[in-house]
Design a protein that fits this description.
The chain is an alpha+beta fold and about 425 residues long. It has helices at about 10-20, 40-45, 60-65, 75-90, 110-125, 140-155, 185-195, 200-205, 205-215, 215-225, 255-275, 315-325, 360-375, 400-405; strands at about 1-5, 25-30, 35-40, 65-70, 95, 100-105, 130-135, 165, 245-255, 280-290, 300-310, 335-345.
């Protein structure tokens, strides 16, 4: 038996925890440098705002009714971590599936629905995030139950028992087949041609028919809908195949120094994430893009192998600068850039050869830098060429970083991760 506990409209709910005036108001959270809606409240959805809609395409009349916030991932990640800590106290096994979704193991628990409701109420009381809970004999059924619990509870704060739904193969007829976990839009369209409209319709099809017409992937989903587990919880995140950091600039940038500054910052963040997972990069790539909204189709991408898998931010920054110089053109303006680390291997499993090996002194310096930044905030200590200073030196007008930094006009304070943003009670 599994459970899926999912925060309702998670990003919007996080904003409402510390800003109560947003409750009941149509609220939109923008990502990608305040470009597109990545979270919308039910009130905003009722006004016709859809997920992924660029904010400039929203009519002026609707825009005047919206409360808009820039994505504050530091806040969202911290509240997500608090939810996980609550769940780990209540359940024997927890899989962190995403920032707002967690699978839990409820096998052997006597009153599963009561414990699920208690977890929901505890998260709401201690963290302030409303959740819905789906239960099922498989992860796919738990996911289906979560969607059905949201439908029947209308995501209300005081939903109580309506926020918990125990899904079985016999009670999922209200779930559209396109909403089944693992059934994409293409499969849904093909299944609709056969008259398969709901999850119950899919579960009723013969197994040999699914495997012959749709393959093994959908066959596993079909089996899980019938209560046959095909996968267990993933308690440890598998090693990444690549780590990518990219940004859309706040304006078009033609200053080469600003581009180097941006790429150095992206490299710093990527290396920090990589070291946090105990990995080292054997290769990297960089890309630069023009502004397609102005008819500029420029796009260039270059990759380079590193002499030896490294954790050294300085080495990655040097490689990024080399690749950027080989791609940049005079007078070209850039709207987006990114850095990717690939050929990732476990740092403790690298094999030095006669000519190359890890620079232990440099990597020890990186470890010290990570500890300082973890304690005092990212950007407190970094490589001098990086221009992103979150916890340390702020952006300065006229400096390279001021040209490429994302436009975040409605960013809420980092209430839980910055001393200067702590709420003051008077």
């Amino acid at each position: 038996m599994y459970g899926l506990i999912d925060g309702n409209n998670f990003y919007v709910s996080c904003e409402r925890v510390f800003d109560p005036k947003l409750r009941g108001k149509p609220t939109v959270v923008l990502g990608n440098a305040d470009g597109c809606a990545i979270a919308i409240s039910p009130e905003a959805k009722a006004l016709g705002v859809k997920m992924g809609t660029p904010i400039f395409q929203v009519s002026r009349e609707v825009r005047a009714q919206l409360q808009v916030r820039s994505a504050n991932f530091a806040l969202y990640g911290d509240l997500s971590g608090r939810i996980v800590s609550i769940l780990r106290e209540m359940f024997p096994r927890v899989e962190v599936y995403s920032i707002d979704e967690n699978f839990v193991d409820v096998a052997g628990i006597k009153d599963v629905e009561a414990l699920a409701l208690e977890a929901r109420e505890r998260i709401l009381r201690w963290v302030g995030i409303p959740c819905c809970v789906g239960l099922g004999a498989t992860r796919t059924l738990a996911k289906a139950g979560n969607k059905l619990s949201k439908d029947q509870s209308k995501r209300a704060l005081n939903a109580g028992k309506l926020a918990v739904f125990h899904a079985t193969p016999d009670n999922i007829d209200a779930l559209a087949v396109g909403d089944v976990w693992g059934v994409g839009s293409r499969y849904a369209a093909r299944l609709a041609q056969e008259g398969v409209r709901t999850a119950a319709d899919l579960a009723a099809l013969p197994e040999h028919h699914i495997r012959a017409r749709y393959g093994v992937v959908l066959a596993r989903t079909h089996a899980e809908l019938r209560g046959i587990p095909c996968a267990d919880l993933e308690l440890e995140e598998p090693d990444r195949k690549q780590i990518v950091v990219s940004r859309t600039f706040g304006r078009d940038v033609s200053d080469p120094q600003a581009i180097f500054d941006a790429l150095a910052t992206f490299s710093t963040v990527a290396c920090e994430r990589m070291r946090g997972r105990g990995l080292a990069a054997g290769a990297m790539w960089v890309w630069l893009s023009g502004n397609p909204h102005k008819g500029d189709s420029f796009h260039a991408s270059r990759a380079v192998p590193l002499p030896f898998p490294t954790q050294d931010t300085g080495e990655v920054i040097r490689a990024a600068g080399f690749l950027a110089r080989s791609m940049m053109k005079p007078e070209q303006a850039y709207k987006r850039a990114g850095v990717g680390l690939t050929d990732l291997v476990r740092a403790d499993a690298r094999q030095p050869d006669l000519f190359f090996g890890p620079d232990l002194k440099r990597e020890a310096n990186m470890a010290v830098m990570d500890k300082i930044n973890a304690k005092f905030g990212r950007g407190t200590l970094g490589v001098g060429t990086a221009g992103w200073r979150i916890g340390g030196v702020p952006f300065q007008k006229g400096k390279p970083a001021d040209q490429w930094r994302p436009t975040l006009k409605s960013l809420s304070p980092s209430y839980t991760t910055k001393w200067s943003d702590l709420l003051r009670v008077r």
